[in-house]
Amino acid sequence: MRIALLFALTAGAAAAQDLGPRPEFAPVDMAQAELGQLLFYDPVLSGNRNISCATCHHPRFGTSDGVPLAIGEGGTGLGPRRRPDPQNPPEQRIPRNAPALWNLGAAEFTVMFHDGRLEADPDEPGGMRTPLGQEMVEGFDSVLSAQAMFPVLSGDEMAGHYSENEVSQAVRLGHLSLEGGAWDRIAARVAAIPDYRSRFDAVLGEAAPIRFTDISNAIAAFIRFEWRADQSPFDIAMNGGAALPEDAARGQQLFYGDAGCSSCHSGWLQTDHAFHAIALPQIGPGKAARFENHARDEGRMRVTGDPADAYRFRTPSLRNVALTAPYGHNGAYASLEAMLRHHLNPVAALQAYDRSQAVFPGFEAEDWRVLDDAEETARIAAANELAPVKLTDAEVAELLAFLNALTDEAAVKGRMGIPDSVPSGLPVDR
Q: What is the DSSP string of 89-104?
């Protein structure tokens, strides 16, 4: 009887919405992926040789960094222990949460970043659209590869403060993909290291020039292989294997049924890849240019210029979501339960937001400017798209059980793991 009930619950949840075809992943060249693993963990790609991709996207923290707003250049330490360096603090805070990397190698992921400022577009000459211009996308084999150009060109993330090093100097002058620009300088560093040179020979051909896009393509191959997460208990149950525990099965039925979660978190990977406004509290410096003096973050509108897109952010996939705290585009919610409860009544949750959830070193009065601004908070509330949903505490617990069933333990352990060392000889964040 119990087995029949579990099967009925799981089958009923699946019937509530057609999940569509299974996610597709392109084949991976393992020599390229192994090269990408070393580059991902190697600080040599940063201007001051002190930050790697893994600093803000570490497997110990669910491929993010465990804090609301990342600290790149000007920080020391790893994860929640990372702090501003008192001797050389950040010039400007990073305004958004470091997104997790799970399944970004799936073919359906054609949009990157919280605001979608990089996206595949077959109508564009380079097959992608980015505010940096079409000349910046040549040579990347996917949007996953192309997204790597953003952090290395950001002074606050990896490039370094103005005039600190040859990469940050090139960035300041606007010399990015030009001959002798920031990308060339990073690529030259890598090419000068014998182990990288020989590994690129195996991937590109003997003595082929190493371009930044080749570095990025290798990192993308590593991410596609290492953080593919599609063998969770949910997948196993949906493919006819072991049924979910009863509470998770009931949570799945709620998720794809009365709770309405799948209206945005749809499909096998629980995302529609679209943009929605759900009245998330705005904390931190906001997404603004250096010359702008405001703390707001208008989300997708900064990309499209359409007022209808104000405060909309990309729907994240929920794979391994139990591991990626804190939550929201700026990490406003410390726990998965708090984020889930926000969805039940976003406007009320915004108005009653508990600031103690934003656990972050160095929050100052400026970080609460929007929450202290009644007019801006009202605009965030007015843009909300979600109607209130009433759930009991027991139903919330069942939804959380289902979300935990989206964890792929094999992916969490890592297929390749953290290398003991990298060819540059620089320290590896462990």
A: --SS---S-----TTT
| Burial environment of residue 198 by CB neighbours within 10 A (0 to 12, 13 to 18, 19 or more) | exposed
Confidence of residue 162 (pLDDT cuts 50, 70, 90): confident
- Is 416 a domain residue? no
With b for 16 or more beta-carbon neighbours within 10 A and e for fewer, the 32-65 pattern comes to bbbbbbbbbbbbbbbbbbbbbbbbbbbbebbbbb
Q: How many domains does the chain have?
A: 2
Q: Which amino acid is at 68?
A: P
Token pair for 183: 């990308």
Q: Where are the alpha helices (DSSP H) in 284-353?
A: 301-304, 336-344, 346-351
Q: What is the pLDDT of residues 312-334, one digit of tens each?
A: 999 999 999 999 999 999 999 99
- For residue 364, what are the CA distances in angstroms to 140, 196, 260, 272? 39, 43, 37, 35
- Which pLDDT tens digit goes with each residue over 230-246? 999 999 999 999 999 99
Q: Tell me what the mean pLDDT of segment 248-273 comes to.
A: 97
374 Cβ contact partners less than 8 Å away, ≥ 6 residues apart = none
* 3-state SS, residue 341: helix
Whole-number mean pLDDT of the chain? 93
Q: Residue 3: what pLDDT?
A: 42
Answer yes or no: is pLDDT of 413 > 90: yes
The whole domain housing 379 covers: 2-23+230-409
Residue ending a domain, among 175, 210, 228, is 228
8 Å CB contact between 326 and 68: yes
For residue 143, the tally of other CB atoms under 10 A from its CB is: 23
Alpha carbon of 190 to those of 46, 49, 127: distances in Å? 11, 12, 27
Q: Are residues 183 and 270 in the same domain?
A: no
Residue 53 pLDDT > 50: yes
Is 417 a domain residue? Answer: no
Q: What CATH number is attached to the domain comprising 243?
A: 1.10.760.10
